[in-house]
Amino acid sequence: MRTPSFVPVTMLIWAVAACGGTDEEAGTPAETVQQPAPEVAAPPPASEQEPAPAEQAPVQQAPRQTAAAAYDEPWTPEFTGTVDPGMSYDAVVGVWGEPVAERSADGRQYLYFRNGCEASCGTFDVVFLENGAVVDAIVRGPGHTYSGASSSPPGQEAVATLPMTAGG
Q: Judging by DSSP bridges, how do beta strands 144-146 and 133-138 pair with one another?
């Protein structure tokens, strides 16, 4: 059963009247009872007061820690050459030298090489190996080239590289 729409309004009026809203009969504000102000003790004479605490210097906050500004460090490659799809780890290291970092997950290896534009390019040169063979590379540095179809040459949208199958 639906409640008539006037019931909530009526309840609201009763609630306001009960809380000291308006006097329903006269339509004037309800009488309020004046409470006497609480008595406040006068402060003791200055001779009896405790000494004021020494004024403390404002607390200085340490400067906000921010990451150091990223910048490209000058770099001249010692190892240059072309990495080809299907090359082994050892063959890549033979061409570009030791990577600065390596990661692996799920049978894939990621080799990171200096390129001199880590900050402005946003990445190291990266060689991707799957099942021990090169399947992709991101190359930005001078002297580093990749003969395959990179998923990320400058200005090109990334495209998936299909994993190599055994024997193919």
A: unpaired
When pLDDT is cut at 50, 70 and 90, the band that residue 82 belongs to is very high
Tokens at 44, concatenated: 């003791």
The token pair at 96 is 């570009």
Claim: this prediction has a pTM higher than 0.70 = no
SS3 content of the chain, % helix, strand, coil (to 5): 15, 20, 65
Q: Can you tell me which residue has the tokens 């001779």?
A: 47
- Of the candidates 64, 75, 66, which has an alpha carbon nearest to the alpha carbon of residue 118? 75
* Phi/psi-derived region of residue 155, left when phi > 0, alpha when psi is between -120 and 50, beta in every other case: left
Please give the structure tokens belonging to residue 117. 């534009």
Q: Are 124 and 70 in contact (CB under 8 A)?
A: no
